[in-house]
Design brief:
heterodimer, A: mainly alpha, disordered C terminus, B: 10-stranded mixed β-sheet, 3-stranded mixed β-sheet
């Protein structure tokens, strides 16, 4: 091909080809060594992991539990089998008697130890958490975490942040505050969660409002964080956040997401602001989020006001809400909704009708015959069949539980 | 004198064209790999933190799994049972029986206690008529839509989309195996960005692996060369190509076997296309077209860690038909969505991934085959020196080898899916061997696909021979949940794939 081309091109092709092949060979050698190193270190770490798990496990569980329960971490079958071997042995590796051993297993690859410690912290409750903190203090886990705060690996940085939160260590607040405003959503979320764990009362005023500002935080993680505190603690601050966000004319999606978190608060606390927003807003997602939370019959006139809304999602939520809180005089509205152009509105209306007081199957069948069109009859038949199926399933599960 | 000058000029221009094309194509592939080398390790670190325990909050959006099935009686039961075991708070399984002529429906009815359900079926996108909807009396989240055969997977998928109850749906084949945590991982982009409309995951080759009752129990490499080469191809495509394009927010394809879509967005663009042989790519490109050209905010994402396993063809004839069909499908999709090409509003999709698919990936078989022919002719005519020939071959081999090796490297530094050192060595050997025949053969088959697309000839899907051992544990038919499984296993037989 290059007979009539310059020697430069031939040379370029030749040397490029050779360089790329040589690079491939270097990568292959690297991969083989890497694999060998990973396999070897995995074997070592597995043995160490068993030691760590066993020690921590013995420290946090009572004597009865020790012989009946084994932690099922994300490890190989090999580890589990080794653990089950240990399970039957009368070991007493409590940290009070073996501090040096714990120190040893902690010092070797502290990142893994932090992971295991945090894993257990997220898995247990009550007194066991305190026992884990005692262990941490006895082996100066805080120092390891402090070193890891600026670690090259993100995983270690997050574990360090999480450790401070679990330890409820106020001295780390300054470092965590810096990270709570980090542009990386995962770092900022973990730092905020840690701060709230350290001192909810003080830090909630400053950092809880971030849940309304950071749309890049996973709502599942936020909900988990809020749930962890419980409705008693979060109700008032959460309602205040929603009120402020509404006053500041926050965007539709952001507002809708914030309102959805109110499901974790006390209805008595959030109902006034929900009703206020519902009366004033025209945003679809915000209306839907509010309607989902309504449990007060006082809101019925407001809810009915959205019955003729041009957006089917809103109409669907209205019939759902009517099914939840509606009176027998809402049946007319629901029958009307059975003729709605949208399938989901018809379906939810049928579901709502069935849940209405005094609605028997006989009455529904009678109603079905009187309906003007096939669509509404079909949807009622569909929902009736679903109900029958549910009735069929419920006694079975009851029998099973007995 | 004039003719020899003309030939010299022609050869010079041609050689520079082939060389430039080669450098550009492989340069982009290598560029995408380099991007993945930076992106993936960081991503894996972020994900490793998800291994910490998380409780369910009720904020996880529910998902509809749509399993399209045509004559899949040998695998449908273990597949459904495996899906029922997925770790996710709320999901439904919707099997679309696309007019199967075997006993699929009967088997499903017996195994899952199905009953005809008077469903008010809602047809928002077109498909062949639904004969009946069945509901499992044992699993409230399991339904079967029995419909007339639509002649293509798109038709069955559309019926599934119409029947899906939830806002997000995942189309699946009956013979795909999902890892149990995959829904939890696939949902992440939807939680982090409310503009997300589609998410793809990684597909891996099942050949050689062991499957028990629809769950993957042992990971192995295939023992046939053709399947092994496909392992390398899939690794390159998913760990390098998809991750790379996703980094630039220009992902052009989500595999039909494994994706999570926002139902309303899919309905908005008319669902799956009956016309296209590559209905999965067509859907993604139409979504891009609709959202980009209408200035609507959206995100098509790819997450590398949720994994789905599927079987690859091991025979030449089936593989050939698959590749011809893929190439035709590619051109169908590109043609249907040609408005995206260099459209001012199309962003990096219209100016990056789409032109790449058309000018580099799409017509590369033409250039590659033409290049080979040109090279041989020139060599025979003495226009190529032996040094030049060897140089070109070394360059071609070196690039191909490096691309495969770097894909294996990506695999090594992230998942290490294949657990033994032997697996790694076999993969490296495969990466070496595939340059001598396999790649060239693929180019020829893909060229055939282009020719058939131009000539609009009939296409067929071929008969897929199932080689993986799907050990089925029959269930006692009784009316009470849950299902106690018997121990006797029964090997699966081969079954026919969905027809075109």
């Amino acid at each position: 091909m290059f007979a009539i081309a310059s020697n430069i091109v031939v040379n370029l092709a030749w040397w490029s080809g050779l360089s790329l092949t040589a690079l491939s060979v270097i990568v292959i050698i690297f991969m083989i060594f890497w694999r060998y190193w990973v396999e070897t270190s995995n074997k070592k770490n597995q043995i160490l992991a068993i030691e760590r798990q066993k020690i921590l496990y013995n420290c946090i569980l009572s004597d009865d539990e020790k012989n009946t329960q084994i932690w099922s971490l994300d490890n190989s079958k090999d580890i589990k089998s080794k653990l089950s071997f240990w399970k039957d042995k009368p070991v007493n590796l409590c940290y009070f008697s073996r501090p040096t051993l714990l120190k040893k297993v902690h010092n070797h690859n502290p990142g893994d130890f932090l992971f295991l410690w945090n894993y257990l912290h997220e898995s247990v409750r009550g007194n066991s958490k305190e026992k884990l903190n005692e262990i941490a203090r006895s082996i100066s886990l805080k120092e390891s975490a402090t070193k890891m705060l600026d670690n090259h690996f993100l995983k270690n940085r997050l574990l360090a942040i999480g450790t401070f939160g679990n330890l409820k260590d106020e001295t780390a607040s300054f470092e965590l505050i810096k990270r709570a405003y980090h542009r990386d959503p995962i770092i900022s979320f973990w730092a905020t969660r840690a701060l709230l764990r350290i001192n909810f009362e003080t830090n909630s005023k400053r950092f809880l409002p971030l849940i309304g500002k950071r749309m890049d935080w996973s709502p599942v993680l936020v909900a988990e964080m809020l749930k962890e505190r419980g409705a008693d603690e979060i109700s008032t601050p959460l309602v205040t956040i929603v009120e402020n966000a509404y006053a500041e004319k926050t965007g539709e999606r952001q507002m809708a997401r914030l309102i959805s978190y109110l499901a974790l608060a006390h209805p008595t606390d959030y109902t006034p602001i929900i009703l206020k927003i519902l009366a004033e807003t025209s945003f679809k997602e915000v209306i839907i989020a509010c309607l989902k939370l309504i449990i007060s019959e006082d809101a019925l006139p407001l809810v009915r006001g959205f019955f003729e809304d041009e957006r089917w999602q809103v109409r669907m939520q209205v019939v759902l809400t009517l099914g939840r809180i509606g009176h027998s005089n809402d049946i007319k509205l629901l029958i009307k909704a059975l003729n709605d152009l949208d399938w989901w509105v018809r379906y939810r209306a049928a579901c709502a009708l069935i849940s209405m007081p005094g609605m028997t199957e006989k009455r529904l069948q009678k109603l079905s015959k009187s309906l003007p069109n096939q669509f509404s009859r079909d949807i009622l038949k569909h929902v009736l069949a679903e109900i029958r199926l549910k009735c069929f399933l419920q006694p079975l599960s009851f029998t099973l539980s007995k | 004198m004039f003719s020899s000058t003309f030939i010299i000029y022609f050869v010079q221009i041609a050689q520079w064209f082939f060389l430039s094309y080669f450098v550009l194509l492989n340069g982009i592939y290598l560029g995408l790999t380099v991007v993945s080398l930076f992106v993936l390790p960081y991503y894996m670190q972020r994900q490793s933190i998800h291994r910490l325990p998380q409780s369910q909050t009720g904020f996880e959006p529910p998902i509809s799994l749509i399993v399209t099935s045509f004559n899949e009686e040998s695998v449908i039961v273990p597949a459904v049972r495996a899906l029922l075991q997925l770790e996710y708070p709320e999901f439904e399984i919707l099997i679309v029986n696309d007019g199967s002529t075997d006993n699929s429906l009967q088997i499903l009815t017996e195994e899952f206690d199905l009953e005809v359900f008077p469903a008010a079926f809602r047809e928002r996108i077109k498909h062949k008529p639904v004969k009946a909807v069945y509901q499992s009396k044992r699993y409230p989240n399991l339904r079967v839509i029995d419909k007339e055969n639509g002649g293509c997977k798109a038709d069955a998928s559309n019926a599934g989309v119409n029947g899906a109850r939830y806002g997000l749906f995942m189309p699946l084949d009956a013979d795909t195996i999902l890892e149990r945590n995959c829904l939890k991982l696939m949902i992440q982009p939807y939680l982090l960005n409310s503009d997300t409309i589609a998410v793809g995951g990684t597909v891996r080759i099942l050949n050689g692996c062991k499957v028990e009752d629809g769950l993957l129990t042992e990971i192995n490499l295939p023992n046939k060369w053709l399947a092994l080469f496909q392992v390398l191809e899939y690794t390159r495509a998913f760990l390098s190509g998809r991750v790379g394009w996703n980094y630039f927010d220009a992902l052009p394809l989500i595999s039909g076997a494994f994706g999570l879509f926002k139902k309303e967005a899919v309905i908005e663009v008319g669902g799956y296309s009956h016309k296209s042989l590559g209905e999965d790519m067509d859907l993604v490109l139409r979504l891009h077209r609709h959202y980009r050209l209408n200035n609507l905010p959206y995100r098509v994402d790819f997450v590398v860690d949720p994994v789905c396993w599927t079987e690859a063809p091991e025979g030449f004839s089936v593989l050939k038909k698959q590749r011809v069909r893929w190439q035709r499908g590619l051109f169908d999709c590109l043609w249907e969505n040609r408005k995206l090409l260099f459209h001012p509003k199309a962003g990096l999709v219209g100016w990056g991934s789409f032109p790449f698919l058309l000018f580099l990936e799409g017509i590369s078989p033409v250039v590659e085959v033409a290049g080979h022919v040109f090279f041989i002719v020139c060599f025979c005519l003495g226009l190529v020196s032996s040094e030049g020939a060897i140089s070109f071959l070394i360059l071609s081999f070196g690039t191909g080898f490096l691309l495969s090796i770097s894909a294996i490297l990506l695999e090594e530094i992230t998942f290490q899916t294949y657990p033994r050192m032997k697996h790694l060595l076999v993969l490296i050997f495969g990466a070496f061997i595939e340059n001598f025949g396999y790649r060239q053969l693929m180019s020829v088959w893909r060229l055939e696909g282009i020719i058939k697309w131009i000539l609009k000839t009939e296409s067929s899907w071929g008969t897929m021979t199932r080689n993986t051992s799907w050990q089925i544990q029959p269930v006692k038919t009784q009316t009470l949940p849950p299902i106690p499984a018997k121990q006797d296993a029964q090997a699966s037989k081969t079954s026919e794939k969905q027809p075109a």
